[in-house]
Design brief:
334 residues, ACP_syn_III_C, transferase
Length: 334
């Protein structure tokens, strides 16, 4: 695992005065104390490259690159081929996965399928988002939540029972509620409407109260479904690493699942909601904090726009696939 966040740290005290928020107000509602923001001119492929390069240090070459992101550099082409080229990987398979904050879990399932089918032997999966490019400067409800960053992991073919084994995934979606999390304009739908380019709403929009309800229900149902399929009881989970969206959501999901909250790893306070980067960043920080041991059972779950959701379970590998980098060290090395 490896993770990276931009060096510019934005604390709650640094938020715009026009939002009329305090550190206590933000922490009490979200659990977030700071987030990292990319400098102007920084795109998603730039932050993805940082995490990818770190995870590939000293590793064998890969034959596939998957980039989970809802903030691609362009509508066309996908950003994954650019990341692969900048890494010097040659003409490998590369494509994007658009499942918003569930993207990393969708990427794990996709990567596992590519490996199981023999299409890929060693695969690089990156979750990366630069939400600061989409946020409305006047929207404090989203502005207090989101940060920028990237996390990466290497997947390879292995043997049953080997530490690091991906044991199962559960995925779902509900397009009927797509409007709860959206960027209204900028795609083919808005172009087909006849509205002149540049005259629509290109900012990230989220209906917070409804998203909260959906996130708690969907992540709980998905995680419970996967636990049942694996024959695990809640106490069989050594580490629960949910999408770092909002502390209240995570506490509610943990409680409903019956997983002790002390087994839930959070780095939300330091980095905020980093979209598809959220779970791999949390895993990298958990490894750096020496919280994970070989063979321990890990459950992850996520919820995002689409609506999409998903869960995955695996055992922790015998050694990290690449160098991990904690939040503090990431800033110092940037």
């Amino acid at each position: 695992m490896a993770g990276w966040v931009p060096p510019r740290r934005v604390t709650n005290d640094d938020l715009p005065a026009s939002w009329q928020v305090t550190d206590d107000w933000v922490r009490s509602r979200t659990g977030i104390g700071s987030r990292h923001r990319a400098d102007p001119g920084t795109a998603t492929s730039d932050v993805a490259l940082e995490a990818a390069a770190r995870v590939l240090e000293g590793a064998e070459t890969v034959d596939t690159v998957l980039l989970a992101s809802s903030t691609p550099d362009h509508p066309i082409p996908a950003s994954a081929p650019a990341v692969a080229a900048r890494l010097g990987l040659g003409p490998v398979a590369a494509f994007d996965i658009a499942a918003v904050c569930s993207g990393f879990v969708y990427g794990l399932a996709t990567g596992a399928g590519l490996i199981a089918s023999g299409v890929s032997r060693r695969l690089l999966l990156v979750g990366a988002d630069v939400y600061s490019n989409l946020l409305d400067p006047a929207d404090r409800s989203s502005g207090i939540l989101f940060g920028d960053g990237a996390g990466a992991v290497l997947l390879r073919a292995g043997e049953p029972g080997e530490p690091g084994e991906l044991l199962g995934c559960d995925l779902g979606s509900d397009g009927g509620n797509a409007g709860l999390i959206t960027v209204p304009d900028g795609g083919a739908r808005s172009r087909a409407s006849g509205v002149p380019p540049g005259h629509g709403d290109h900012h990230f929009r989220m209906q917070g109260a409804d998203v909260y309800k959906q996130a708690v229900v969907r992540m709980t149902q998905s995680a419970r479904s996967l636990l049942d399929r694996l024959g695990w009881e809640p106490l069989d989970v050594d580490h629960f690493v949910p999408h770092q969206a909002n502390a209240r959501i995570l506490e509610a999901v943990s409680l409903r699942l019956g997983i002790p909250y002390e087994r839930c790893f959070l780095n939300l306070a330091e980095v905020g909601n980093t979209g598809a980067a959220s779970i791999p960043l949390a895993l990298a920080d958990a490894q750096e904090a020496d919280r994970l041991r070989e063979g321990e059972r890990v459950l992850i779950t996520a919820f995002g726009g689409g609506l999409t959701w998903g869960s995955a379970a695996f055992t922790w590998p015998s050694a990290p696939a690449g160098p991990t980098t904690s939040t503090t060290a990431r800033r110092e090395r940037s």
